[in-house]
Prior knowledge:
Chain A is of the alpha/beta class.
Amino acid sequence: MDNRQKEIDNLKDYKYGFTTDIENTRAPKGLNENVIRFISNIKKEPQWMLDFRLKAFERFKQLKEPDWQKPKYPKIDYQDLYYYSAPKSMKDKPKNLDDLDPKLLETYKKLGIPLQEQKRLNGIAVDAVFDSVSVATTFREELTKQGIIFCPISEAIQNHPELVKKYLGSVIPVTDHFFATLNSAVFTDGSFAYIPEGVRCPMELSTYFRINASNTGQFERTLIIADKGSYVSYLEGCTAPMRDENQLHAANVELVALDDAEIKYSTVQNWYPGDKDGKGGIYNFVTKRGLCKGKNSKISWTQVETGSAITWKYPSCILKGDNSVGEFYSIAITNNYQKADTGTKMIHLGKNTKSKIISKGISAGFSDMTYRGLVDISSKATNSNNYTQCDSLLMGNKCGAHTVPYIKNKNSESNIAHEATTSKISEEQLHYCQQRGLSAEEAVGLIVNGFCKEVLQQLPMEFAVEAQKLVGISLEGSVG
Amino acid sequence: MKEQLQKDFDNTIRNLTLSQKDIEIKKFYLDNFINKGFPNRKEEDWKFSDLNQIIKKNIGELSFYSDYTSTNKVDTSAFVDGLEHNKIVFINGRIEKIDFDYEKKDQIEIIDQSESINKFNNNSSLSDLNSAFTNKSFKIVVKEGYQLTKPLIIYHTTNSKIWSKNINLRLNFELYENSSLRLIDLFRDTSEKNFLNIFYNFDLKENSILKNYKVDKFENKNIKYSFNNIEQDKNSVSETFILSSGSNFCKNEINCNLNGEYSSAFVNGIFSINNNKHHEIRTIINHLTENTKSYQLIKSVLEDSSRAVYQGKIFVNSKAQKTDGYQLSKAILLNKDSEFNAKPELEIYADDVKCSHGSASGSLNEDSIFYLMSRGLNYQQSRELLINGFLLDVVEKITDSEVKNLIKNMIGIKE
């Protein structure tokens, strides 16, 4: 039975856990200058891009891996990874979807992202990233009509070098911290979006990340630029096969909002979380940072974090422009042996800047969850405001929930308010729901969804439905 | 600094009668301190207050040796009027007087522990420094069932005889079952540029009550670090009040272990600072068993380019169900150069708990000022009224009415 039956049983819990059997092209194993040259070469990158990578790599060699975080993990051997893996059929980029390897199409269909059908059905433009390459981007013609550029970043480097050169590394410099710098050196693919002045993007842009190959790390890089007065809503989804090994996902996401622009960035992160005993799963060490560069600009992060063995990320906003606004809405759920250390940073530099942080953490099983955040109001950020609320819910006494906010106020005309609570689901609430005919699990699902509602509301419609389901699934087996 | 330390250490040891073994232990602590040095910003607990820099900037070269062979004259006029009290008097770090005149002699025991070295449950370099250089240390024991009739005031006095000196103090208190102690630490400094490093250890047995009031009110240019370790047994209560105001730099640390059921800890504090002062309170409340309670309230009023830091941590281990933990910090920034930093932290491993914290900082509410001015007060009066009211909230938390009045008078808060 047993392996097969076991696999089926497992798949019940994590339905995205299948592998696609496809031939790969890989970079030689390990991390060195040659591998970086290999990646740059296979992507046919110009010299300045290679220089950017090598500069990052030089810096990386001097950096030490950080160890202040709450979730500890066994040492990663950076020489034992493949930094590039792509389906063979992607070597000469297919011109349209009909040329695409049917196996890839099948994969995305199984994931619920049918690249062809969706084109006709939903009003969402999708960029599908498979291991180290982007395999398809939908709705491109329609977007181009409005002057919107939405394409894989490797294409943007070729076709729009002036934009990439100007903004890549402007929010997360190559000299940033360990994982960000590693990403700058070896990033493979990701999405690029540019919304021209005054354009309101007519549909949601989205990227779907899929890790397939084993023994690889995924290093995606996303860059979104909203020019003056524009608006864009961007979604990100992620899944990976079930494996006993831990895989590293170290992404960099940079957002730039110019005068009066708004970027809304939503993530539903559902990487493989490992099995019930904490074996396997993705290490999700991601750097996400948005720069409100212009006045009256706004960046809003929404995240639903249910997957990954370890989640370690702090989507941040640098509020540089006067009157700019930063928002962060987060639900993080950990079960079994999952660990999360997540939160945000709001750096207020401009006058009249405002930020809001709503974080909901739920931990069950043997898991551990930390909210860690920074609110820093500099002395020049007169009349700025921050409001932070972080609530944690604990299920059982084998798990932990922690809150570590750093609050710095250097301006007497600015206000900061921070609140945090930790509690459990009350017996009365459960009793009330069960009395009305819900099972214990349904009751918990309902209460938890209520607990998370403030954040779920921020998600675009279709995501919200998926996220709501995910919240229920992630907590299965944690009651009773 | 290393040679200086070594030299001063040898001088200090010469004046003490210690066994070879004890000297070895002291040497061990000295070496630890030499290795680590003063804490700096790279250490998480000192992130907001870089003591190494502060000492360098304000004092420069410190000397660690104090000559304690000659006595200092106790100035009785400095004693608190209108409140009968027991006294311990430190002058320039030398213990000059211990007097429990108001109490039954057989109910209080004072044990000289100078000859033995007791370990401290704190592995910071400052504890090493303290262990290496403390010269006299006493243990004060309150016997079973005895409640002190009068409060104990510890006078920490320094005068201009000392300069650029490091002073290390250490006291141990043990409160037996059903006993109680009210303790006021009163700082009166007329010296400048010294670094005081004070360690207290409290052992609270069942049903005992400790009330500790730390009052640093008088303007001075000294740098202070004070660490209180409180161990609490079943049903015991500890109340700590901190008035942080006078010194140039002051950091108060409270580490409280709630080991017994139904024990509770209260920490209340006021920062009222101006000029370039930099003050910090750091609390760690460890809920280690079921049904324990903690409450913390910290309020700050910051003028000029002063800076206040509050780092508060509530830790709840997996056994400590039914914990009730609360923490609130509020700050008013009166000047554009003032700064408030907070790190209110929760670390929780039990599910049936009620823990929350809040932190707010901002300017004085203009609407309230407008309201008061529209009723005939001038701007200055309105401002004072609001600030007084803001701080009174914390003072009102003091459960001992005698001490409450004393402190109210001292700060000049009128009701």
